[in-house]
Design a protein that fits this description.
By secondary structure, the chain is α/β, with parallel strands linked by helices. The protein has helices spanning 23-33, 40-56, 66-83, 91-124, 139-145, 157-160, 168-177, 191-200; strands spanning 7-10, 129-133, 153-156, 184-188, 204-208, 225-227. It has 8 helices and 6 strands, in the order E-H-H-H-H-E-H-E-H-H-E-H-E-E.
């Protein structure tokens, strides 16, 4: 299935850090655990608001690690819930809950990295690896934070000015490897943002199928392979 593959492009968020679980679902679990009295629709509204705010305003600095990032996200989200009247509580309570949400999510990623890191490390011994990610300008700090420095090149959307699902961001990854697209496999959790654009430029693809946002049209004949656990990825290259 993966014959003649000479290089691998990885997505980061949702692929390596949550094992193909959309970050909205990871955060929602934390909101439930902290007993924040809002509906899932209200939470999804605040999640979208925070993502748009982070795209609009450079709250995330290059030196911020992943816990810093989660704190900033949770701060924006919980403040939105207060401002909209979805959650009535004191600010001191909101801030305490925000910290707990961020820490819960951070611990989940630390746990997942015990699975993802050995996979990436093992494949790095056999193939050149490139990371292609929609991120906030601090991906190198994140990789340091989780001891995931196995990538020969990192293509970050906020740095190159191109965001997925624009296929050009994957073309930059292909160019960085100096290979033909058909010699490269792209591994990602988003069908629309990873698999479709990577497939469109001729790369092979591994779709990490998990719990997504829920609004994607899926054609399972498109990916070269479909997995539900990052731990199984090395088997494809045996």
């Amino acid at each position: 299935m993966m014959e003649n593959i000479k290089g691998i492009i990885f997505d980061y968020g949702g692929t390596l850090d949550t094992n193909s679980r959309h970050w909205s679902e990871v955060l929602w679990d934390a909101y439930l655990e902290e007993k924040v009295p809002v509906t899932k629709d209200q939470f999804r509204e605040c999640y979208v608001h925070a993502e748009r705010e982070l795209a609009r305003v450079p709250y995330i600095k290059p030196e911020h690690n992943f816990l810093d990032l989660l704190r900033i996200k949770a701060d924006i989200e919980t403040q939105y819930l207060i401002d909209k009247g979805y959650w009535q509580t004191r600010d001191v309570t909101r801030r305490a809950v925000m910290e707990h949400i961020a820490f819960r999510c951070y611990q989940k990623v630390i746990s997942q990295m015990e699975v993802s890191r050995p996979v990436v490390e093992g494949l790095a011994k056999r193939f050149p690896l490139v990371l292609v990610s929609n991120f906030y300008g601090n991906i190198h700090t994140i990789l340091d934070d989780f001891r995931l420095n196995y990538f020969d090149e990192v293509i970050e959307s906020s740095v190159v000015g191109i965001r997925k699902p624009d296929p050009r961001i994957f073309s930059l990854g292909v160019e960085a490897m100096g290979m033909k697209p058909e010699e490269i496999v792209v591994v990602g959790d988003s069908f629309s943002k990873d698999i479709i654009p990577a497939n469109s430029i001729g790369c092979k693809t591994v779709w990490m199928k998990g719990q997504g946002w829920g609004n994607e049209e899926i054609d399972e004949s498109v990916p070269t392979a479909i997995l539900t656990d990052i731990a199984l990825l090395p088997i494809l290259f045996e």
